[in-house]
């Protein structure tokens, strides 16, 4: 049975940590052997993955401990150069664990394909013609993605928006269930497949045919509680709640608040081969939708502690992309043990929430630099025998 609670893990040698993980994560021998070799990426594989390859660039692969998500222990791989990110997330998860861990739910994996037109003669009438042909357009989109249809995915709906009536700018958004993929290539295929038919319906000039990286129908929601005692007392909890409120009032603070949240999410996303640029773009865009840049996560006082929550659009995948090409990503997934894109999204949101709590707690107590600089200094200590 997997457990994410391994006392004294950071005090052990790398070899001893792998022994612990092999037991705690029930890892197979092949995965353990891969980690013992140092992981990494062989140059021939790297050359197939990218262009103009000359070498590989390594990051430390760590594991965040103490996470419980929807009642299940999870070991979270993180690839990041900053030691305090991993330590802080693990420590915050330990505090949250005492109150039951993280709880969340994720929407189906609906991505948006956009087909845009300029110089449409009568945009409102053109939009009505597209809506009237909804079934035919969705069927055309489905015909372009037969393998996804076989997995019960496919086009679910469409929406037409007139962006500029005077200039005749119109966009058709098609909503596609991409199942357990991130889905960029899938929705791009759909957009290009339906574009000629849409052009015949609306007229004008065809513009862009591509996904949106803001998947508003693919939301993930995570919440947790943490007690005053676990945090170090009610004064610490008060300080965290005030810091959270500060981020709601001031965009300058919200940016740094959100950077602390994304520290954890990005590190796990990189380790798991996700498109972290897409995740960053969507998260910050969503934080701005209200007309003022806002915090992604919030912390509120509740009796005896704090409640934290986050809601974000997260386009992630457990198939496709680097998940099928990178052996390190495959090993990281064996450690994490998630089966669906929704589960993965909740993991990333949870580690972001833990990182955010750790940063706010540090700010509310000793300040951010004390623990950060102590761990930072390790980078400049020459290893014995080097």
Q: What does this protein structure show overall?
A:
By secondary structure, this protein is an alpha+beta fold. It folds into 2 domains: 259 residues, 3-hydroxy-3-methylglutaryl-coenzyme A Reductase, Chain A, domain 2, CATH 3.90.770; 103 residues, Alpha-Beta Plaits. The chain is 47% helix and 22% strand. The protein is built from 15 helices and 10 strands. The strands form 3 sheets. The chain has a 4-stranded antiparallel beta sheet. A 4-stranded antiparallel beta sheet has the order 5-6-4-7. A two-stranded antiparallel ribbon has the order 1-2. α10 crosses α11, α11 packs antiparallel against α12 and α11 packs across α14. The longest helix is centred in the last third of the chain and has 24 residues. The chain is globular.
């Amino acid at each position: 049975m997997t457990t994410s609670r391994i006392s004294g893990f950071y005090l052990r040698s790398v070899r001893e940590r792998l022994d612990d993980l092999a037991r705690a994560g029930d890892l197979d021998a092949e995965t353990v052997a891969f980690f013992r070799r140092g992981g990494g990426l062989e140059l021939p594989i790297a050359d197939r993955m990218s262009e103009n390859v000359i070498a590989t660039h390594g990051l430390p692969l760590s594991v965040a401990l103490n996470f419980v998500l929807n009642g299940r222990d999870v070991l979270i791989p993180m690839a990041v150069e900053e030691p305090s990110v991993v330590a802080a997330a693990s420590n915050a998860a330990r505090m949250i664990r005492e109150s039951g861990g993280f709880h969340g739910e994720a929407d189906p994996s609906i991505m948006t394909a956009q087909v845009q037109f300029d110089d449409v003669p009568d945009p409102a009438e053109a939009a009505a013609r597209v809506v009237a042909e909804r079934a035919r357009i969705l069927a055309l989109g489905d015909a372009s993605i037969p393998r996804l249809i076989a997995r019960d995915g496919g086009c679910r709906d469409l929406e037409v928006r007139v962006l500029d009536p005077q200039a005749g700018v119109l966009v058709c958004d098609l909503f596609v269930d991409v199942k357990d993929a991130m889905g960029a290539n899938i929705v791009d295929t759909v957009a290009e497949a339906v574009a000629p038919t849409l052009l015949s319906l609306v007229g004008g000039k065809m513009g862009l045919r591509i996904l949106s990286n803001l998947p508003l129908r693919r939301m993930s929601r995570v919440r947790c509680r943490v007690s005053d005692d676990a945090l170090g007392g009610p004064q610490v909890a008060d300080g965290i709640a005030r810091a959270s409120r500060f981020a709601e009032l001031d965009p300058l603070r919200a940016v740094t608040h959100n950077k602390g949240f994304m520290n954890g999410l990005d590190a796990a996303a990189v380790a798991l081969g996700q498109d972290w640029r897409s995740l960053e773009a969507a998260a910050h865009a969503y934080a701005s939708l209200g007309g003022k840049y806002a915090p992604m996560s919030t912390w509120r006082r509740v009796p005896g502690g704090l409640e934290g929550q986050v809601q974000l659009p997260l386009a992630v995948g457990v198939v496709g992309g680097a998940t099928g090409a990178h052996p390190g990503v495959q090993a990281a997934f064996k450690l994490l043990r998630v089966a669906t894109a929704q589960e993965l999204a909740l993991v990333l949101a949870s580690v972001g929430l833990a990182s955010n709590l750790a940063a706010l707690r540090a700010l509310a107590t000793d300040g951010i630099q004390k623990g950060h600089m102590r761990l930072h200094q390790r980078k400049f200590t020459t290893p014995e025998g080097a």
